[in-house]
What we know:
The complex is a heterodimer.
Chain A: H1 13-37, H2 43-59, E1 74-77, H3 83-93, H4 132-146, E2 153-158, H5 165-176, E3 182-188, E4 191-192, E5 195-196, H6 197-200, H7 206-212, E6 216-221, H8 225-237, E7 243-248, H9 271-285
Parallel strand pairs in A: 1-2, 2-3, 3-7, 6-7
Antiparallel strand pairs in A: 4-5
Chain B: E1 20-22, H1 23-37, E2 41-45, H2 55-60, E3 65-67, H3 72-84, E4 88-94, H4 103-112, E5 118-122, H5 140-145, E6 151-153, H6 158-170, E7 175-178, E8 183-185, E9 200-203, E10 208-212, H7 216-229, E11 234-238, E12 241-243, H8 247-257, E13 260-267, H9 272-283, E14 288-293, H10 303-309, H11 314-334
Helix pairs in contact in B: 1-6, 3-4, 7-11
Amino acid sequence: MKTERTTKGELTDKEVLRLGDLAAKIRTEILKMLKVAGSGHSAGPLGLTDIFTALYFKVLNHDPKRPEWEERDRLFLSNGHVAPVRYVTMAEAGYFPIAELKTFRQFGSRLQGHPEHRFLPGLENTSGPLGDGLSQAVGMAYAGLMDKKPWQVYCVMSDGELAAGINWEGFLFAHKYRLRNLTMIIDRNYIQIDGFTEDIMPIEPLSDKLAAFGLHVLEIDGHNLREIVAATEEAKATWDRPTVIIAHTIPGKGVSFMERDPAWHGKPPNAEELKRALKELRTLSGAIQSEAS
Amino acid sequence: MPINPEVYLKRNLFHEGLAMVATRDGFGEGLVLAGEMEPNLVVLCADLTESTRTQAFKEKFPERFIQLGVSEQSLAAIAAGLALAGKIPFITSYACFSPGRNWEQIRTTACLQKVNVKIAGAHAGVTVGPDGATHQMTEDLALMRVLPNMTVLVPCDSVETSKVVLAAVKHPGPVYLRFGREKTPVFTTAKTPFQIGRASVFNNGADLLIVAIGPLLHEALIASERLLEKGIKASVLNAVSLKPFDEEGFLALAKNCGAVVTVEEAQAVGGLGGLVAELLGQYAPMPLERVGLGDVFGQSGTPRELLEFYKLTAPHIARAGERAVKRKLLAKKLK
């Protein structure tokens, strides 16, 4: 859908409530699809849900009925293992039927274990091998400026993958060519598959490092819808440099026993865990609180 | 006349007066021609403008020339992003670094997504010479051939290299083009046929088939002359299109000859030698000799010294041919 843009960068209270409810619904579907799939990643998708909700339902200029629409904003994903949040949000936005979510990771499905450009319209890139997303977004942004296109390029990436040198090659390039149409969103959740990022390979002071690379750096609460939208608006308004948004998130957000636990990076819930998780999520959304008792 | 008249090779094929031009120069010229024809063509450079011969393109189309510095991994991935936006990017570096250093980016972002990234690998083979083994890429053919969706082209001289560049631009999907640093004989002409997926018979003979790629094809032709003196009539096939390979054309010739020699300035496994061994093993087992690097790295030296040392020159190709024919005849006798 074409998102109507009322006031620049500001969500109304009503919008915050609507998007918040949507995010809760998306988290519910993420957990359900992971349970059906029997494999996949839980923590990252739950942590990124508010960001993907804001992107697809407020920030991006896109049309789910015309995924190849030339004027669309381009959303690249680098940490492809968070595929569930992208698939569910796209389904909610109308790219494909919700019912298709249960085919995730199965033979013949368009919803491949890691998102594949050639399988599902609406995915800008194939991702999974960490580090490869940013440079592709950078190439797209360069082409956009070259051809004077009005669309924006977004790239969602993770903190753990910043250990890959190719990202820093991409930052250098983005700075050299002043890719002002590029907004990078780093999911700063402090976990990766082997543990906590600062134990595996410390990346702090991240903000200083990125600023030293000549990028416009913003730090936000990645669960605050108003902050997410405001930061992307500021990025768009920044005319001389690419912007990187460090979005602080809680991995496994919304499910108490998954939050901040690296053990949930790469596994799905079982039936019992799903039941417990859904109860907590429904409490969050409020509307169906009564069911949770 | 064993030389096939239909491929219009230079008349002075075996004479001293043959022009010597590096295949990389053919690349530089082809790139400018392609740039004139195709407005979406862009060239990405990783700090090797002069030696990969992209300088002329840069001067003619500065707005379509992108300098990245020494960053081969992003070179490949940024090119994929440009290709996703409808551009036709050529990424240029030494073959050691691209596709040597960025194989995974080529696999994921170019091949898996099947986008229009053209990889130009310069300074391939041992004829890079004094720079030594670090810069002598001999594993690229194996690395590229194994990738689904990839096309692999290895032109034999500068004239063919220009044709290869133009064909790569029109051919959808990722393409690897390989060329060398050293000046090598220009023995094909504008009229010599070239088509992706086709091999051309440069020399006719029914006793032995020599399949060669790259500038060593000229050595293979010289070898076929030497073999003639020994009474062995050899066909010489230009296998410029390593992938897709002209399997039918090759197998028909091989079956007719009954013995095969492969020639390449690369590891004899995995590239042309590997491919031919696979095909013969599957469809037509017969004596095979492979001329190429034998599971070793190169070293410093002059190009000629190195070609000699690694047994890649005409006398060695001829000797390999004799061995193959001997085995063929022995097998016949034993039957």
